[in-house]
Input
Amino acid sequence: MKTQTDIARAAGVSLKTVSRVVNGDPLVKPETRDRIERIFREMNYQPSVAARLMRAKKSDIVGFLADGVATSGASSDLIRGAQDEAWTLGKQMMLFNIREGEASETNAEAQLVQFRAEAVIFAAIAHRAVRPLEGATPRILLNCYDPEGRATAFVPDDEGMCRDLMAQVFARGYRRPYFLNLSYDHEAAHLRRAGFVKAGAEAGLDLSDRVRPVIEKTPTGHSFHVERHMAEILTLPDRPDILICGQDIIAMEVYFALARAGLAVGRGLGQAHGEDEDLHLGEELAHAGQMVTALRDHLL
Output
């Protein structure tokens, strides 16, 4: 492994001059800098990041604490977007997959302190309130918020999203929607229900009794009961002509529940992508990341 001493000897300069180039000292003569950087490349020299951090006033490091986000394909755009922006600004991003309130979070925070991170992004897998750890480092919250307003937060407009989706549903002539929602320990579930009911009121429909959670909170997590609820919903006098599913997994469960019940999905199988405001009908399957999915239930 080549050292700065090797570089200084090859360039015919002092070790201090090489160190000044490594640390970006603007007072180094351009021709000297060019010669040393050329030797860097020729000798495949990689400056020590740790050593540079010890000397630099800024670390150029941004931390990303992913509370379940790093293991969710639907949330990968959060990480990709943050990393791309960090690179654009000349920063490096350190990614940690953590669980809030557990050792993984405190360990990640300790490492970010050691590397003197200039800012920390905290992203949650579900829209909810969080209590960011105390510290002077600027915090940015994604898909979550601090009730005390101590950090800048970016959260999805779950109510508006569901309201806009339902406006498209009604515009296509559907009048008997039913919403299969998340469990109500999710903040998004309350907001989406509000959007669903308000959109119905704007269309002259009372949808307050046409929404139910099909996921239940358990001591160890969540359990899905889509099939049981589907059996009840399909016996309603005014059987739905479209089902609105609060999560892509719910949409999958609906599809399979119908198959197990010996029912067939008709031609109109609705699909709404989380990244797309339009409602697409006639697709093979429905999915929407963490957003609302619409499945038309036109049973034969």
The two ends are 71 Å apart (CA to CA). DSSP finds ten helices and 13 strands in the chain.
